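input
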Amino acid sequence: MISKIRGIQTNREERMESIIKFSTSVKNLVAKMETLNSVGHMTNQQLLEHFIHKLAISMKMQWGMIAATVGREQHNLKDFSSWLEDIVFAASFAITSPPQSGH
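output
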């Protein structure tokens, strides 16, 4: 499951669909970790940093603003997943269908 997430390309601003896919995959991973009570993996800072590295620079900055409020070592994958869900929710308002011609 982790290797699947690592394979998702998300670092391009214009590819909102990829961040949606990434967010869903991270959310599913977190749910699996919670089900298995994998606290060690949930707080794995190296894994979190790997996922952050996959983000576009503007999203890295946004996450940095969130992380700075509490402290870098205090965040976990669940926090990251929740933040990604908020980003995807906002993106859902920005994704529009192409205009239809003839009207």
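quick obs: The chain has a mean pLDDT of 82.
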